[in-house]
Amino acid sequence: MLALLAVIGTMHFEADVHAGDGDYDLVTFDVPAGTQEIQVDHTDGSDTDILDWGVWSPEGFRGWGGGLTDPAIIGVQASSRGYLPGAITPGTWTVVVGEAKLPTGTGHYVIDVTFRDAPTLAPQTRAPFAPVVVKPGARWYRGDFHVHDTESGDAKASIADVIALARSRGLDFVELSDHNTDSQLGLQAVAQQSLTDLLLLRGVEVTTYHGHGNALGATDYIDHRVGLGGVDAASIVAAAHQQGALFFVNHPVLDLGDVCIGCAWKQDVDWSQVAGLEIQNGNVTVSEVLFTPQAIKLWDQILDGGAKVAAIGGSDDHTAGVDETNTGSPIGSPTTLVYATELSEAAIKDAVAHGRTQVLIPGPDLPAIDLTIATPTGDARIGDTATGISHVELTATLEGAAPADATLGIWRDGEKIDQIALDGAGADFSHVFHYDAQGGLERFRAEMVSGGLRVVVTSHVWVDGTKPAPEGCGCRASTSLRPNGILAAAVAMALARRRRRARRP
Questions:
Q1: What is the rounded CA–CA span in Å between residue 422 and residue 435?
Q2: Which of 66, 205, 380, 384 is deepest in the core (most CB within 10 A)?
Q3: Closest to 64 in 3D by CA, of 89, 96, 88
Q4: Tens digit of pLDDT for each residue in 161-173?
């Protein structure tokens, strides 16, 4: 077959690019009839400049390699990583050049395009998405929402590598969130067919020069080219929602300049349209200094503004744990726990949309913390809103053993209000905290601390209650499980039920 290979034609382009003229330059070329494979060789010719590369066909997106220096090869039955195989339509195609880093303000690209009448790549096996339920039953499922494989231009891990590490760490799910491409979707659908213990979630990390976001459940590429053709944060979030995906903001305060281009979120966004925020990304030691406290502060500010956004953690692993840098972290560190009705993509998405998450910062071996608040109609748990109460009876329960030195803190509306020592408590540990409702909407979360570091952070259980009447029991906030506190709560619930009955027609 190789002997019959013929080059139909070639084209050469080179030009300067200039910062300040927009972040993207478009280079068009005409594809002749009969082309079965296109190869785009490209270079920025510099050790300091970074240009990104992608290709669009007359029908739209065909792939994004980012700063990958390998040539982009697009064929009918196979394409190089980050690019989609499929029919090659004669007509005008486009190389999109992204100006990721231009220290002097000016860069230079060289592009050579080759058209072939036969492929050089072996056919790839891909499959359409097929919904699966990997495990039945409602419980806390453990996973990682931010993992890259070789379909991301800057990643080294194959999908098989990702699966092997995730399984070895006891995870239930992994989201393959590759940079600005959906080329991984058909490949992971094939891998999912033989998996009975791990769910591969669909996703795209929408990577812009002004912030990175995660579209959980994305079915297609989402245009990331901010500033080109009206693309902005609002259009990105809207496109995710149109696909039925949830949108998270990744590592929002990780402002490292050229070390991590565009990593900090610097775009206006309607936070009510955002489902999750990464409060932990990557290496725990580095993040505790550079990232996590500031991310949690931002999270509380967003919640203070009225949006309900779930806590998310992501390893941002690019190597499946191999040769991690000082800032890297293997899959599952951190782990995000999601309380879902079953282990399926639809159930995980629904649970996150309702705020049923918590983050195990070092990794999957820490216990989940269940938080519930008693109401006249049953318990409200993480993600729920407790109504009809004037007294908050908050129960914290561990699902596993805590570290020997661990403490458990309770936070209300972003302020720490309580703390108890866990003393290595196990799965039978349960403790009830008592507080008066403040009136209006308020939120409670728990944090476990060990070795001076946060190790577990829950999302919130919400309260929309009423202040106790002045002639009420006079109870004060307490961490003691006292009989009179339980009785007061029961009386308050009974009075609340009586008041509601009195208001009914």
A1: 20
A2: 205
A3: 96
A4: 999 999 999 999 9
Strands 430-436 and 391-399: antiparallel
CB atoms within 10 A of CB 68: 19
Q: How far apart are CA 450 and CA 457, in angstroms?
A: 12
Cα 410–chain centre separation: 25
Query: Rounded distance, CA 498 to CA 485, Å?
Result: 20
Nearest to 93 by CA among 115, 118, 76: 115
- Alpha-carbon gap, residue 25 to 207, rounded angstroms: 17
CB 19 within 8 A of CB 42: no
Question: What secondary structure does DSSP assign to 149-181, as a single string?
Answer: -TTSTT----HHHHHHHHHHTT-SEEEE-EET-
Q: Centre a 10 Å sphere on the Cβ of residue 340 and count the other Cβ atoms it contains.
A: 26
Whole-model pTM: value is 0.91
Q: 257: left (phi > 0), else alpha (psi -120 to 50), else beta?
A: left
* pLDDT cut 90: percent of the chain above it: 85
How far is the C-alpha of 111 from the C-alpha of 488, rounded, in Å? Answer: 75
What sign for the dihedral angle of Cα 409, 410, 412, 413? positive
Q: What is the C-alpha separation between 265 and 238, in angstroms, rounded?
A: 17
DSSP characters over 437-455: --SEEEEEEEEEEETTEEE
Question: How many angstroms separate the first and last alpha carbons of the chain?
Answer: 83
pLDDT one-digit tens code per residue, 463-493: 999 999 886 444 444 333 333 333 333 333 3
pLDDT, one tens digit per residue, over 54-86 is: 999 999 999 999 999 999 999 999 999 999 999
What Rg value do the Cα atoms of the chain yield, rounded? 26
Residue with tokens 């995980």: 348
Q: Residue 391 and residue 484: Cα distance in Å, rounded?
A: 13
Contacts of 194 (CB under 8 A, 6+ apart): none
Residue 391 contacts residue 487 (beta carbons within 8 Å): no
C-beta neighbour count of 202 within 10 angstroms: 24
Classify residue 317 by its DSSP letter.
Answer: B
